[in-house]
Design brief:
Helix content: 40-55%
Structural class: alpha/beta
Strand order of the largest sheet: 3-2-1-4-5-6
Largest sheet: 6 strands, parallel
Bound molecules: nicotinamide-adenine-dinucleotide, (2S)-2-hydroxybutanedioic acid
Number of strands: 14
Distance between the termini: 47 Å
Order of helices and strands: EHEHEHEHEHEHEEEEEHHHHEEEH
Length: 328
């Protein structure tokens, strides 16, 4: 069989802690699979170029058979040139005592500039995931500044929260993580996110019936998932990195290869379904198939769900208002 043309994968923030986990897994084949060669196109700030070159030395020392080339640059247009996929990680992380929305003023401008470069340089069918916080609103800024690039292909990461909820639910229900389906994490990657077990099942049974403890769900599961990032910062003195990289890989892998009919959560541009205002970048359940994602639609919500949705919608609307000048 002829060797496939390498896929070009742009990654921003290449000198940072998430990329120190992410790049090695991409090069190993965890995104495109074990038969697909890749080229890494790495972006970071001018002052971080030496550190990126150090990471590249380590990539070389792994002798990954699939890694055919690595480009290092501080120019976003070079990084995104002909990209098939792009991970937007580069931006400031929060430290103790901050909320992710406090990063908006520091990080929003990055996504305006990089949106223009994406518009100019990437393939029109490139798949984009924004990891840098506040991820939903940064992705909205990116899409707004890339008017010739399909908005459907700009997504934000809420998969880490989905994975966090899966583990907590599986442990409480005494089932395997891989047996859970129809879990959804709605809204903003922030304390208002809503890990929703209403439809979640394992082995054909509702998790809410297996666990049978609504108080635990409302007062422990939902806030623990929403506050997990803070708990990690408090424990580690730095924000999540390996688990964030893993979630980014899961997000992109499933988008490319499919989610086997299962629900996964992705931040996507709202079409107005489920009462979510059009245009917000919003965590929703999707099913991935044949290189695209399909939103799960037609669900009806109870009063509790409506209240949780309203809270996270209001926060994302406030964030949109705060960056209105960058949305064109
Ligand atoms: P880090 O500080 O270790 O690395 C960030 C890197 O981005 C640095 O190398 C920095 O030089 C680079 N950078 C800054 N501005 C840039 C620009 N304009 N262009 C290119 N590169 C630039 O941070 P990290 O721990 O790797 O986290 C990165 C981001 O990911 C943070 O915003 C963090 O909050 C976020 N994050 C999101 C999730 C999620 O679930 N969505 C999870 C974890 C972390
Ligand atoms: C996380 O959820 O771990 C990341 O968004 C980092 C953070 O700031 O909490």
């Amino acid at each position: 069989m002829p060797t496939p043309t390498p896929k070009r994968i742009a990654v921003t923030g290449a000198a940072g802690q998430i990329c120190y986990a992410l790049l090695f897994r991409i090069a190993k084949g965890d995104v495109y699979g074990p038969d697909q060669p890749v080229i890494l196109q790495l972006l970071d700030l001018p002052q971080a170029q030496a550190a990126v070159r150090g990471v590249v030395m380590e990539l070389e020392d792994c002798a990954f058979p699939l890694l055919v080339d690595t480009i290092v640059t501080d120019d976003p247009t070079v990084a995104f040139r002909d990209a098939d996929a792009a991970f937007f990680v580069g931006s400031r992380p929060r430290s103790k005592g901050m909320e992710r929305r406090d990063l908006l003023s520091a990080n929003a401008e990055i996504f305006r500039v990089q949106g223009r470069a994406l518009n100019e340089a990437a393939k029109r069918d490139a798949k984009v995931v924004v990891v840098g916080n506040p991820a939903n609103t940064n992705a909205m800024i990116l899409a707004a500044n890339a008017p010739d690039f399909p908005t459907e292909n700009v997504t934000s990461m809420i998969r880490l929260d989905h994975n966090r909820a899966l583990t907590q639910l599986a442990a409480r229900a005494g089932v395997a993580v891989g047996d859970i389906d129809r879990l959804a994490v709605w809204g903003n990657h922030s304390p208002t996110m809503f890990a929703d077990w209403t439809e979640a099942v394992s082995g054909g049974r509702l998790l809410s019936e297996i666990i049978d403890d609504e108080t635990w769900y409302r007062e422990t599961l939902i806030p623990d998932v929403a506050r997990r990032g803070t708990a990690i910062i408090e424990a580690r003195g730095a924000s999540s990195a390996a688990s964030a990289a893993n979630a980014a890989i899961d997000h992109m892998h499933d988008w490319i290869h499919g989610s086997d009919g299962k629900w996964v959560s992705m931040g996507v541009h709202s079409t107005g379904a489920h009462g979510i205002p059009e245009g917000l970048m919003f965590g929703v359940p999707v099913v991935c198939k044949d290189g695209s994602y399909e939103r799960v639609e037609g669900l009806s919500f109870n009063e509790f769900q409506n209240g949780m949705m309203a809270r996270t919608i209001a926060e994302l609307e406030e964030e949109r208002e705060a960056v209105a000048a960058l949305l064109g």
